[in-house]
């Protein structure tokens, strides 16, 4: 009887086994079991599909009800500005449509929803419905919040022990392809469009940022439970985070040079030299404080920990931006959250799987469609756009080739297949690009500077970056998703049959 039970269990798991000679079974038992199993599986699948459909419907139904209730509350509280044709209703409705379009795109094609949100913003601007140039105050405010959520969310998953043990690989993959692309882009823009060098490097600092967050769910799914000989989620996350840190820091420093040109020259160079160091020190100190406060036995330890790093990051971004120390704030956020997550992991919170990470993911998913939709409203389609887009496409091909060749060469410890996978993951450009590309435009508008030449530089910068997002994001996502299972082969251990004989 015990042997029959074991055999049934083996059949249920779909495992081929070799039975002993004295094992007996009957055809009727096997047939009846298989029939009942098939019927049971069909019913379970049907019930699971019904539950999933009901859950999804109720999820979106609740969100719609909450959205309508919030709008009615704002209309009653603030009057006509939130009516159908009110000033603030338009940005809200564009954000809502961007979110809906993104959800539909992801459900039907699996592509990242940010593409639909960006296209929604472009459409809203070019039909004359919304132009965020008329909302520079709110747009500028939001673009100081986005980096806190993006950088904070990513760095909460950093494994500092892994980074210390593999620092050469992480640093080379995060720094060298980024540097090669920045220099290549600055040269191309100077030669092809006559861009000043400082504007070329400003564009390069944004353009060269890789967008690993849109690939991380795919990478985690591809590598889960497999012996691949490499911690791929950590390698992609930490190397991509290093790349992002360089982009945010370089952009902040160069942007400060352009916008604060009245400051003393010595002070400007001192500020640029110290931004990275001071941001790192401030972030590590704040993240270390998160180890001690709040106390681990505090009744509200979860809420207070999230607020501690979130408010600290917001203060870092807003204070450094106010005093012209751009770049230091972003580094402080990365250092703070990575340090805090390291200490929390020692106390029992798993990296990237704890209440703080969940809170950041929820906040980011809430603002992501807003970010891309509002960025899209800066993109104006006009007859002279074709020349800029043609040059931009050529620049994209050259820069991407340089970036991927460099990424391929700086990973000598990986196999050819693994290096090709790294190249696939290093294609997308989206999140940092969308956050930073309109900042120069809004800065000129909000400060009242009417330098037509520099404004044209800022407009061209924005157009080229939006083009890169629309091209590289789907390509990189699809390459990683479909080639990943082919390029990442599991390293099977040899069977130990000889020792068992």
TrEMBL record:
<keyword id="KW-0812">Transmembrane</keyword>
<dbReference type="InterPro" id="IPR038770">
    <property type="entry name" value="Na+/solute_symporter_sf"/>
</dbReference>
<feature type="transmembrane region" description="Helical">
    <location>
        <begin position="304"/>
        <end position="325"/>
    </location>
</feature>
<feature type="transmembrane region" description="Helical">
    <location>
        <begin position="460"/>
        <end position="479"/>
    </location>
</feature>
<feature type="transmembrane region" description="Helical">
    <location>
        <begin position="388"/>
        <end position="410"/>
    </location>
</feature>
<dbReference type="GO" id="GO:0098662">
    <property type="term" value="P:inorganic cation transmembrane transport"/>
</dbReference>
<feature type="transmembrane region" description="Helical">
    <location>
        <begin position="430"/>
        <end position="448"/>
    </location>
</feature>
<feature type="transmembrane region" description="Helical">
    <location>
        <begin position="57"/>
        <end position="76"/>
    </location>
</feature>
<feature type="transmembrane region" description="Helical">
    <location>
        <begin position="232"/>
        <end position="258"/>
    </location>
</feature>
<feature type="transmembrane region" description="Helical">
    <location>
        <begin position="170"/>
        <end position="192"/>
    </location>
</feature>
<feature type="transmembrane region" description="Helical">
    <location>
        <begin position="111"/>
        <end position="128"/>
    </location>
</feature>
<keyword id="KW-0472">Membrane</keyword>
<feature type="transmembrane region" description="Helical">
    <location>
        <begin position="198"/>
        <end position="220"/>
    </location>
</feature>
<feature type="transmembrane region" description="Helical">
    <location>
        <begin position="270"/>
        <end position="292"/>
    </location>
</feature>
<comment type="similarity">
    <text>Belongs to the monovalent cation:proton antiporter 1 (CPA1) transporter (TC 2.A.36) family.</text>
</comment>
<feature type="transmembrane region" description="Helical">
    <location>
        <begin position="362"/>
        <end position="381"/>
    </location>
</feature>
<dbReference type="InterPro" id="IPR051843">
    <property type="entry name" value="CPA1_transporter"/>
</dbReference>
<keyword id="KW-1133">Transmembrane helix</keyword>
<protein>
    <recommendedName>
        <fullName>Cation/H+ exchanger domain-containing protein</fullName>
    </recommendedName>
</protein>
């Amino acid at each position: 009887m015990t042997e029959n039970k074991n055999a049934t269990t083996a059949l249920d798991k779909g495992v081929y086994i070799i039975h002993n000679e004295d094992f007996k079974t009957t055809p009727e038992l096997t047939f009846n079991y298989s029939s009942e199993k098939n019927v049971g599986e069909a019913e379970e699948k049907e019930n699971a599909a019904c539950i999933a459909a009901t859950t999804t419907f109720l999820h979106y139904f609740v969100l719609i009800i909450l959205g309508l209730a919030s709008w009615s509350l704002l209309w009653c509280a603030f009057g006509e500005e939130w009516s159908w044709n009110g000033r603030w209703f338009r940005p809200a409705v564009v954000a809502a449509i961007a979110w809906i379009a993104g959800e539909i795109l992801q459900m039907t094609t699996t592509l990242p929803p940010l593409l639909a949100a960006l296209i929604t913003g472009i459409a809203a601007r070019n039909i004359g419905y919304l132009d965020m140039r008329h909302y520079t105050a709110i747009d500028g405010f939001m673009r100081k919040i986005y980096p806190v959520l993006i950088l904070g969310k990513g760095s909460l998953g950093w494994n500092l022990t892994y980074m210390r043990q593999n620092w050469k690989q992480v640093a080379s993959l995060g720094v060298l392809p980024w540097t090669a692309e920045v220099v290549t882009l600055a040269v191309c823009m100077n030669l092809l469009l006559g861009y000043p060098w400082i504007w070329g490097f400003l564009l390069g600092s944004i353009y060269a940022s890789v967008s690993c967050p849109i690939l991380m769910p795919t990478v985690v799914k591809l590598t889960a439970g497999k012996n691949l000989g490499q911690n791929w989620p950590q390698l992609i996350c930490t190397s991509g985070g290093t790349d992002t840190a360089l982009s945010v820091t370089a952009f902040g420093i160069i942007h400060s040079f352009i916008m604060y040109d009245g400051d003393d020259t010595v002070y400007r160079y001192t500020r640029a030299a110290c931004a990275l160091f001071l941001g790192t020190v401030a972030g590590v100190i704040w993240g270390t404080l998160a180890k001690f406060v709040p106390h681990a036995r505090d009744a509200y330890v979860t809420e207070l920990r999230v607020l501690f790093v979130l408010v600290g990051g917001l203060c870092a971004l807003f204070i450094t931006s106010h005093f012209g120390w751009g770049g230091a704030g972003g580094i402080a956020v990365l250092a703070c959250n990575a340090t805090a997550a390291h200490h929390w992991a020692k106390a029992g919170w798993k990296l990237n799987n704890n209440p703080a990470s969940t809170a950041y993911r929820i906040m980011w998913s809430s603002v992501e469609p807003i970010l891309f939709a509002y960025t899209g409203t800066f993109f104006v389609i006009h007859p002279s756009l074709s020349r800029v887009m043609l040059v931009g496409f050529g620049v994209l091909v050259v820069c991407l080739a340089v970036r991927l060749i460099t990424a391929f060469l700086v990973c000598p410890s990986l196999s050819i297949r693994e290096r090709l996978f790294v190249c696939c993951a290093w294609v997308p450009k989206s999140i940092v690009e969308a956050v930073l590309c309109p900042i120069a435009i809004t800065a000129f508008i909000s400060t009242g500077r009417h330098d037509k030449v520099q404004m044209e530089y800022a407009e061209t910068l924005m157009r080229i970056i939006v083009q890169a997002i629309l091209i590289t994001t789907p390509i990189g996502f699809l390459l990683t998703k479909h080639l990943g299972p082919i390029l990442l082969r599991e390293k099977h251990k040899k069977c130990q049959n000889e020792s068992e004989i």
